[in-house]
Design goal:
Number of domains: 1
Number of helices: 16
Radius of gyration: 20 Å
Largest sheet: 8 strands, antiparallel
Order of helices and strands: HHHEEHHEEEHHHHHHHHEHHEEEEH
Number of strands: 10
CATH topology: Beta-lactamase
Shape: globular
Strand order of the largest sheet: 1-2-4-3-10-9-8-7
Structural class: alpha+beta
Strand content: 5-15%
Length: 417
């Protein structure tokens, strides 16, 4: 679940990210899309339409040529990129996981890397499930924007409306939560450093985390005991807490668990049959236990132990094929409308709604770290191939996994030009 700060810094440097010009919420012309009112996604999109237009065929390798653990599309229009991507075979050599590159209409290539599923026999593939970490935030933001479209929520609503006992929340808006501008400390990444200056019982908190018994009330008590990092809207500071609170708000507004909401309004709509939220025991990839930092909040087998504690910020399990279906549906208006999508990619201070700004307006991504797993979901707009989706899902292997992940991102981006 936790967003790895080292990876963020490394990827940011590699991409030479400039993003859009940053602005405070008060400077935005109209950060709210609360006046949009449409029927629910489930009603707006028929199952037949979704299946026909956006579902990947039952076997995503169908029609692809298989060579050396890589399936590639041999259509003439992809011959140039196929040749360029041969470099990936070298950089992938010491990684364990899956890569997939796709357009709205085609799969360009898939590669499963040096690993089997939990049965010990099936090679990892486009349907192998991983803990996707902070890619969850893109889905959380999608759910929030759906509720805004339905008139159940506004960008200008404050946390005080939902959690009146949290005094600082009276000045923090939904917009600021989505764009990482709330100033609330990160309940994952900041907790250990905070324990040195605040009365925080790390041992008890960790035990509750591993037992999945840390309650919403305890979460509110925890953040309520801390001052804010900065004034809401003053700057962008990445915090898992923002999206955990958004998940709690989704539950308040819908009367459903966060996992149930995602299942009905995102997974089912997109045909994501290998995805789940707030569940354990359904990950089919094998975590690599090699890094003490990576496994602090995992069970004895290396999987994240607390789906409720992670919800909204990093609890989703998914596979490469399903994430392509999600990206396609999202970008083509099957989950949220055009105005909402525009707000999603409003990179205010280099962070949108569940997306991070790349080196240009046509380059958006979100990476994730969950226990023993690393992931990245990227969308590129290209002149030659149209909109392209690139997804990386890895078990952590060696100390250089993050660097290789960023390197692969750059290789693919360069090949798309």
């Amino acid at each position: 679940m936790k967003k790895c700060s080292r990876f963020t810094a490394f990827l940011t440097a590699l991409l030479m990210m400039t993003g859009c010009s940053s602005q405070n919420t008060s400077e935005s012309s109209d950060p709210s899309v609360s006046d949009v009112s449409v029927s629910s996604v489930s009603e707006a999109v028929s199952e037949a339409e979704t299946a026909e237009a956006y579902a990947i065929v039952s076997d995503v390798t169908e029609g692809l040529k298989h060579e050396n653990d890589q399936w590639h599309n041999d259509k003439e229009e992809y011959s140039e990129i196929a040749e360029k991507l041969q470099n990936l075979s070298v950089t992938f050599a010491e990684l364990k996981g899956v890569n997939i590159l796709a357009t709205d209409n085609d799969i360009i290539f898939i590669q499963g890397l040096d690993s089997t599923e939990t049965d010990g026999e099936t090679p990892v593939n486009a349907y192998t499930t991983y803990e996707v970490g902070s890619i969850t935030k893109t889905m959380t933001a999608t759910a929030v924007l759906q509720l805004i479209e339905q008139g159940k929520l506004s960008m200008n609503d404050t946390l005080g409306k939902f959690f009146p006992e949290y005094e600082a929340g009276r000045n923090i808006t939904i917009y600021q939560l989505l764009h990482m501008q709330s100033g609330i400390y990160d309940y994952v990444n900041d907790v250990f450093s905070l324990s040195k200056t605040h009365d925080i019982d790390i041992e008890t908190m960790t035990e509750k985390f591993l037992a999945d018994s840390f309650t919403d009330e305890e979460m509110l008590d925890f953040i309520g005991s801390l001052e804010l990092k900065h004034e809401p809207g003053a700057e962008m500071s990445y915090s898992n807490t923002n999206y955990h609170l958004l998940a709690m708000i989704i539950e308040q507004l819908t009367g459903k668990s966060f996992g149930e909401y995602l299942q009905e309004n995102i997974f089912d709509v997109c045909g994501m049959e290998h995805s789940s939220s707030m569940k354990t025991g359904d990950v089919t990839s094998i975590p690599e236990l090699n890094d003490k930092e990576a496994v602090e909040f995992t069970d004895e087998n290396g999987y994240m132990a607390s789906p409720k504690f992670n919800r909204g910020a990093g609890d989703v399990h998914s596979c490469a094929a399903d994430l392509v279906m999600f990206d396609r549906a999202l970008m083509n208006g099957k989950l949220i409308n055009e105005d909402s999508l525009k707000e999603m990619f409003n990179m205010d201070m280099n962070y949108g709604c569940g997306w991070m700004a790349g080196a240009s307006d046509s380059d958006r991504f979100h990476s994730g770290k969950a226990g023993s797993y690393l992931s990245c979901n990227a969308v590129f707009d290209t002149e030659k191939y149209g909109r392209v989706y690139y997804i990386q899902l890895y078990s952590m292997v060696g100390q250089n996994t993050e660097q290789r992940m960023a390197s692969n991102y750059n290789i693919v981006k360069a090949a798309l030009k």
